Amino acid sequence: MKVKDKVYKLLSENTDRYISGEEMADKFGVSRSAVWKAVKTLSDDGFNILAVTNKGYKLEKDSDVLTKQGILKYLSDEAKEFVDIEVFETIDSTNTRLKEMAANGEAEEGKVLVALEQTAGKGRMNRKFYSPSKTGVYLSILLKPDTDSKSALYITTMTAVALCNAIESVVNVECKIKWVNDIYINEKKVVGILSEGSFNMETNKFDYIVVGIGVNVKEPEGGFSEDIKDIAASITTGIEYDNYDLKNRLAAAEINNIVKEYKDFSKHEFMKKYKEKSMLIGRLVYVTSDPDKEELEVIDIDDDAALVVRHKDGSMQHLSSGEVSVKWIKTRQ
Ligand code: BTN
Asked: 258-288, pLDDT tens digit by residue?
């Protein structure tokens, strides 16, 4: 662990007291100037660190930071029993790391990795997921549902519903779900969900599923990058919001809602809300792989989470998310 990470961990676990540079230097076996440099980098990274002569350093309680203790404060009893949280200031990818841990038997169901930054964030279809520091919360949870390959899709729809509920409980916004698992606010994507699993051909079940969730919490300074600025937003874009402990509150709300829905996972009760929250029902879409981009009218989402569409000739089709992805069309051409 770098000195900066050690300092961050110690300060975030002791937000009720000052810790002197000397104490940290002794504890970590480094010079006081190395501690000072680490504190400076953390402050430059946006952490509110108070420095008082003869007392030392203290992380402001209302700093917009993410810590295990900070998240635990807002967890439901049910979630506290289920999860084991590890927080990283920066990581390659919470999904990649958690999959490795699951494969090596280093993580049990309920293990959660949360990070403030990912250097190799992964999106669906092998795309990269832009995961800059300061502006997002990147979280993965390990689940081991007793489910076959077909039902595994419900893990994703369950997570989309849980995330809508979580975000709406933390900021004053209305979330919509774009089939199959993106969350939108005002027609812009604010959350991406990537579920990855290890399928066991002998048992015909998943050994484990890692569900990864990336939430854009704030607009990056200077806005989103050119390639995504027209389609991406954050959950706080254009609204008044309470910044107090926002990332800890959000991460906890995500975990609380996932654990709540997962408890009765096999009943698929979340599908009702999933349909209610759909932003595609009633709209026109086309299948991205269709060279003709035929306009299809979305009629419904069935109980298998397939998109029920009507072709121009009136025929109906059920599109499965494993096979197609769709884009919506603003108006009929
Ligand atoms: C997508 O929109 O394509 C899915 C994006 C999923 C991003 C999350 S962030 C946490 C977890 N770790 C990753 O590398 N990816 C997922």
From this structure: 999 999 999 999 999 999 999 999 999 999 8
Question: What letter represents residue 137's amino acid?
Answer: V
Burial per residue of 228-257, b for 16 or more beta-carbon CB atoms within 10 angstroms, e otherwise: eeeebbbbbbeeeeeeebbbbbbbbbbbbb
User: What pLDDT is attached to residue 46?
Assistant: 64
Name the token pair of 300: 């419904």
Residue 112 burial (C-beta neighbours within 10 Å; 0-12, 13-18, 19+): buried
CA of 282 relative to ligand 1 center, distance in Å: 28
Pocket lining: 301 vs ligand 1, CB cutoff 6 Å: no
Tell the residue nearest (CA) to atom 11 of ligand 1: 212
Whether the CB of 216 sits within 6 Å of ligand 1: no
| 129 in contact with ligand 1, CB cutoff 6 A | yes
Distance separating alpha carbons of residues 288 and 72, to the nearest angstrom: 42
